From TrEMBL:
<feature type="domain" description="C2">
    <location>
        <begin position="188"/>
        <end position="320"/>
    </location>
</feature>
<keyword id="KW-0677">Repeat</keyword>
<dbReference type="InterPro" id="IPR035892">
    <property type="entry name" value="C2_domain_sf"/>
</dbReference>
<dbReference type="GO" id="GO:0070382">
    <property type="term" value="C:exocytic vesicle"/>
</dbReference>
<protein>
    <recommendedName>
        <fullName>Synaptotagmin-like protein 2</fullName>
    </recommendedName>
</protein>
<dbReference type="GO" id="GO:0006887">
    <property type="term" value="P:exocytosis"/>
</dbReference>
<dbReference type="GO" id="GO:0005886">
    <property type="term" value="C:plasma membrane"/>
</dbReference>
<feature type="domain" description="C2">
    <location>
        <begin position="51"/>
        <end position="173"/>
    </location>
</feature>
<keyword id="KW-0268">Exocytosis</keyword>
<keyword id="KW-0472">Membrane</keyword>
<dbReference type="InterPro" id="IPR000008">
    <property type="entry name" value="C2_dom"/>
</dbReference>
<dbReference type="Pfam" id="PF00168">
    <property type="entry name" value="C2"/>
</dbReference>
<dbReference type="GO" id="GO:0042043">
    <property type="term" value="F:neurexin family protein binding"/>
</dbReference>
<dbReference type="InterPro" id="IPR043567">
    <property type="entry name" value="SYTL1-5_C2B"/>
</dbReference>
<keyword id="KW-1003">Cell membrane</keyword>
């Protein structure tokens, strides 16, 4: 687990399996086995009507059980989603921000054919009070569609640092439209500073230790700025790297952990060999940043570098590179043996 350089062989072959000379190789994983890679696990909801109505709830923190409780009572005068049938089937959903994936979502039951649903349910989060106080509560109301095209009915966001914890009474709050950041898909999770380089096979002259028989992709992870701070002490972060579709241990690399720093410096270089120029069209370098904790690591954000055109003609959900990420990869492909520098925003889906 060096913080200076790691080298790994990556074998791209559609049919044949011919290991690269002088190194071990890893066979390509099947497309189906990697279609749910890490950036794709956070699904969203779709569709919306104009937000209206109110929601009644109360907040409490159970010191004994170290549990945050959201008492969802009821909603009134919600928007009608299916105007022909004059119905909405609403439910309430909550997240803790800034990292909604970390603690997960909580949902009430669905109440059918009503714009005035009564729930009287408690949504619970096991979380330390100090950590809770740097979070925001996002509470939203949705119409449940059997086909999964759920419609947004309104939301409210509460900064828990300024919440009056002596107030345990049920109160009414107006539901608001989605925030501009949510509508525009803005999800700021920090920015990664990195450089990449492609060394084509035989491009450095005679074969030898410095001139591999197959091409190499070099990835230099320099630093990350403005990571999400999940607890008062900061964040203990590290970067994982895979070259998809290979998610085997041989493809996996990671940096050291940088402790208590939302602007960690890694200076870690990874070299993947086994690349031929045509493979660059079908490969995807996935770099993800994680917060390290004893029991589990928490996803902070990531980038995917590739052309986003599919894997050997097959559409896969990890081929979702943004325009910025695609342009970065294209620049590397067109400038052999040159370091291409980039500053790319981390994201989740």
């Amino acid at each position: 687990e060096s913080d200076t350089a790691s080298e790994i062989s990556f074998q791209f072959n559609k049919h044949k399996k011919t290991p690269s000379i002088g190194s071990h190789s890893s066979d390509m994983a099947s497309v189906s086995s990697v279609s749910g890679s890490v950036l794709s696990v956070y699904s969203g909801d779709f569709g919306s009507v104009d937000a209206q109505g109110t929601v009644e709830f109360a907040l409490d923190y159970d010191e004994k059980n170290r549990e945050f409780q959201v008492h969802v009572s009821q909603c009134k005068d919600l928007a009608v989603v299916d105007e022909k049938k004059g119905r909405s089937d609403p439910y309430v959903k909550t997240y803790l921000l800034p990292d909604k994936a970390r603690m997960g979502k909580r949902k009430t039951s669905v109440k059918k054919r009503t714009v005035n649903p009564i729930y009287n349910e408690v949504l619970r989060y096991k979380i330390e009070k100090m950590v809770l106080l740097i979070q925001k509560l996002n509470l939203s109301v949705w119409h449940n569609d059997p086909l999964g095209r759920n419609s947004f009915l309104g939301e409210i966001e509460i900064d828990l640092a300024s919440w009056d914890w002596g107030n345990r009474k049920l109160n009414w709050y107006p539901l608001k439209p989605r925030s501009l950041s949510a509508v525009n898909g803005v999800d700021h999770r920090g920015v990664m500073n990195l450089s990449i380089k492609y060394v084509p096979p035989g491009s450095l002259g005679k074969m030898g230790p410095k001139n591999p028989p197959s091409g190499e992709v070099h990835i230099w992870v320099k630093d990350v700025k403005d990571l999400l701070q999940l607890r008062p002490s900061g964040v203990d972060s590290f970067v994982k790297c895979y070259v998809l579709p290979d998610t085997s241990k041989k493809s996996y690399q990671k940096t050291r952990v940088v402790k208590r720093d939302t602007n960690p410096v890694f200076n870690h270089t990874i070299v993947y060999d086994g690349f031929h120029t045509e493979d660059l069209k079908d490969a995807c370098v996935e770099l993800t940043v994680w917060d390290h904790e004893k029991l589990t690591n928490h996803f902070l954000g990531g980038i995917r570098l590739g052309l986003g055109t599919g894997n050997y003609g097959i559409s896969v959900d990890w081929m979702d590179s943004t325009q910025e990420e695609v342009a970065f990869w294209q620049e590397m492909m067109s400038a052999a043996n040159e370091w291409i520098e980039g500053l790319l925003p981390l994201r989740s889906l």
